[in-house]
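Researcher: Predict the fold of Iron complex outermembrane recepter protein.
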Amino acid sequence: MKNALSMYWRFCFLLISLLITAEVVSQNQPSEKKPETEELDEVLISNNTAQKSKKEESLNVETVNNSFIQRNLGGSLMQSLQKLPGVKTISIGSGGSKPLIRGLSFNQVIVVENGLKHEGQQWGADHGLEIDQYAVNRVEIIKGPSSFIYGSDAVGGAINIKPLPLPLQNTFGGSVDLIGKSNNAQFGSSINLFGRNKNWFFDSRVTTMDYGDYRVPTDVVHVYSYAVPLYKNHLRNTAGKELDFHLSTGYSGERFKSVFYFSNVHTKSGFFANAHGLEPRNVDLELHDKSSRDILMPYQQVNHLKVSNTTSFQLGNHAFETQIGFQNNFRREYSHYVNHGYMPPIYPEDMYAPQDLERQYDKDVWSFSAKDEFRIQNHQITVGSNVIFQQNEIGGWSFLIPSFTQFNAGLFAYDKIELNEKWFLNGAVRYDYGKIKMKSYYDWFQSPVSENNQTELEYLQRSQDLTKTFDSFTWSIGANYNPGKLSLKANLGSSFRMPIAKELASNGVNYHYFRFEKGNPNLDAERSYQLDLGVEWNQQNFSFQLTPFVNYFPNFIYLNPTSAHDIYYGAGNQVFEYEQSKVFRYGAEFQTRYYFLKSLSAEIGAEYLYSEQKSGSKKGYTIPFSPPPSVLFGLNYEPQISFLKEPYFSVDYRFTAQQNNIVPPEKKTAESHVFNVAFGSKIKTGKQDISLNIQIQNLFNTRYLNHTSFYRLIELPEAGRNIIVSMKIPFSISR
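Model: Structure tokens for Iron complex outermembrane recepter protein follow.
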């Protein structure tokens, strides 16, 4: 650690010295300035809105725009946001991931796209987020409980993907994005086309990606006790493809706006062949190693369709907004049929599911929401309601969760009080009602059952008809104080989460983790209470932000390993059961930036989280996927170069501490030191600017483990050195 830090700061000192010298020389050079006319774009407006919101809202919210995503482009949207303190991912290979905010994920963090809550199969660590990051313009990350805004599932926070800004009036244009990555030989493109007259508009995008097996800085990994050799460092069968389509169209007037959104995200990606199923040694290495781009079994195909309409209009002092939405998530997992337990050795010809279809989930979601925002003197009040109905059907020859239907409805009221220019108060209340109905399920094969010294063959029942209802009252109060350059905020709130079908009624083998998972129908709704604080200082050349929090769960839901082993399915897998316990958590994020010169700055971003179970069979342990402390040191240089626009060069070093605070079957994770480099610019070409961005991730090809990775349990290191080149070529024709 000391040697790495010493090397980093020596490098930074040398680079600062050289850059300061170059800056002084450039400032002393005579230059002929030409008058320029620039149009204020909508990103700048949204940035000002974000700063204003931070001063008035007591929740801790971070906002990033398309430029940030472009400079930090990863394999998925969440991987591109990992530079923010408190935000991590559970990565599934190089092309998929799900959000982790302050150590909470799955159904404890929600994602909202264009006002519509994203509903996929987010309960599984192997299920990525079906979002096209090229269709994202601005993202709000809410750290902390957000149930009073979004209802159930927002106990840990929210990722709010804001709608794209409308095209300017009387314009027609678009852009072409190109990307290439060295580690997994990825190539892709995204084409955008938009147009608008005075009131009618459209904005469309098509994105396609194709990538091969990604590489890791090792030639062997250990899948539990079995050593798996890797051919040319490739993680066999982790290739994938993606094809996305987006369209928004509608009408925008002075007091009325109605927008229709349509999107379809389709992905096909392989699972690491040696880490799926019951026997990791039964893999045809010769077949899998013939090509790094083919997608063989096991693999998954996911298609996510969304259709919605958002209509807003003003009537006197009231601003109304309604939204109607439909989405379908269709996910299939394919794997060779291998009989285990009492399954027949030969797959029946008359089975309802194809022989290679291991699992299938088909979820339909209908939603409606409405809200009214108005002012009464110094009160800005918002009242609203939402209704969601979802139906999830299952298929395939393997069972884990039953088919179910779920209904959620909520009412809320929010009041922001402006006492004066410095003081703001916030208060909110919400009531939610939820009902989930799970269907019975019987094995398609018979198993021997012994009773009274007699053995008979029976179709075992894996799930019973079960109906559960939940309701909850949540609240939030907060205050903001902004005396000049200093900003202070505090927020105290409660939140809740309905148990999902997996937690209530799962009863099968999870082939990704080599374990048997069993639900608990007696679970209560998960509740959380959290205090958030914020301190921020901003001046011309220096800024910092500190956001500590304290969190308490009286009944946190978690998957607990037991001493039992199943006898009917698999090879005696260990049984894991869902339980509830009291959990206490606290932590903080810290960010600071200092400008040595107008074009040269250094930044530090740090995060810390501690969690402990205060009751239950795992009392004294942490909770799963608790990220270790980490610090990101960054150096940024943005020189003035006549033929370039907004050029930049950055180098950062992330130190991640060891994680010894674990809960079995997790393993301790050693500390890591990773360097990244990025540079790019906008190149002036007439009226349009071409953006070019280059990243070198994991510069020194460091072998390290990520504690929150999907593949952490099998000692699989993170991807090796990766050079990412992306280019954005805009075009515009004004009428």
